[in-house]
Structures are given as structure tokens and as C-alpha cells.
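Preliminary data (for renewal application), zinc ion complex.
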Amino acid sequence: MQESSTILETFRRWAFGNVRVTRVLELPPTPFDPAMFIQATRREILEHRDWLCPSFATEDGDIILHFQAFIIEAGGKRIMVDPCIGNDKPRGHPLLDRLDNPFLARLERAGFPRESIDFVLCTHLHVDHCGWNTMLVDGRWVPTFPNARYLFAREEVAYAAADMAEEAKAIFEDSVQPILDAGLAELVEPDHMIVEGVRLKPTPGHTPGHCSIFISSEGAEAIISGDVIHHPLQAALPHVCSNFCWDEERAIATRRAMLAHACDNDAMMLVAHFAGSSGVYVRRHGDAWKVEES
Ligand SMILES: [Zn+2]
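Predicted structure:
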């Protein structure tokens, strides 16, 4: 399928010392009622409209979200982080159900044919972070990235495997189990070093085994933060949780610690669901923070 030149084709790239990161979107930026995703109202969004609009919110108080993956290039390796929702997967929500997106073609045009990926990494195993782990071929779910090692945090796999909710079971069966069966999975500890300058750190709360990727090279620092934060409003109101958190108290503590770290160390945060440039710097704002697009 040929796509016109839309924001979906606007690849963004950042360099942090010797590490390069590229963003590839799966869905176009989409406005939602905030209550669908986070415990906040349109009124609270509009109280922060001076720095949330137009990239992160509409003038009506809807939040704008992205669904996207980040690809890290470091030490001669290519690391796919959080491979989105995926195609053909039967899901309960219409936003996610049986998608038919040219994500892989888009990835290839950004310079990353699926065969060229060396590692796949999911910050956690929710539906929108592990979908492209697999793709449907002749009625079977097969690994999308056949030459990659898939790094899963041991605790996250145990948590996801034990979740008996119908939707969670379906996600595990079509997006995780085929990777285990193919022998491509490596269960790692949450402080695993992937390559020089790129390491996992545990950031629990949204899920128990949630990890973030800390990049550090030649004095530059960046964090790919998964779902530690869903929307920039949560920088100003860190107590606001998503509707999908496993342990809200821990999620809040993790979010506060990460925002403080990013602010104090001038580390860029690259955030799974942030719209606009998706890469932000965290600045002090009253007794909390706000973000500035890179
Ligand atoms: Zn998510």
C-alpha cells in the first residue's frame, strides 16, 4: 500500500552520543476523551492548555496520543522497542481490533527491514507494546523479526503468563507464546545491559515487571520510558494514573523518580504515547514539572 506524505511518514531521529533513536508511528495522532486513558478530566487538561496545546491536547480538552515504536541503533545493533499493536489480532476494543496497517513497510522505508532487527524489547507486555512481536502467516502467529533475540523481563513474563483475564490470555497466546516456542526469547533481569550505553532499569507500577531503557553515550542521556507516563499532564500532576495500572502507588513513585531524574540530568524522555515530537525535556513547574518538546 502506498501512503501519502503524512505525519505517519515523518520519521523523527535523535542522536545521543554514539546512539541513534528513530520513531516510527503505527497509528496517526488521535484525540481521545482523557477519561479513556488517564484519571483526569477535560477541565484539568484545559487548565494546562498553554503548554499542552496544540501538540498534546486539543482546544476542546481532548488528549492527543501516539501509538509508536522506537528503534535504537547502538554498538552496531538494532533494537526495536515496544512493537505496538500489530495487524490481524482479534481484540476487544475497536481501536485495536484486527488492524491492517502498513507498519512494516513504514519501518522498511525508515531503513529498518524486519530481518535487520537484532533485539526486540517490550517495556511491558500490554496489548499496545508487544503486538508486532508476531505476525499472521498462513493462519499461524510467527515471529515478525526472525533474526532477533526477544528480551523479556523475567518478572513481566511471569505476570503476563499468570493473568487469566480473557484479553490478557489472548495477548500472551498470540504475541508472546510463539516467541517462546520459536526459541527466540531471552528472559532477562530488569537491570540488563543490552549493548554498551543501553541498559534496562526496573520501573515497576504500571505493571510489576515494567522496564525502561536508559541510554547514555558521551555525556548525553535519554530514557525510553514505556508507560511510566502516558500523557504530559502527568508531569504537572504526577499523582494522575492511567486507567491500566497494576499498582497506582508504585506507578506514582516511579513516575516522580523518573521525572526528577530526567529534569536534574537533562535527559530526554522518549515516550510511547506522547504526541508531537514524542521526545521531551522535563522542566520544573511549580512543585512538579512540565515538558518541552525537543
Ligand atoms: Zn501503552
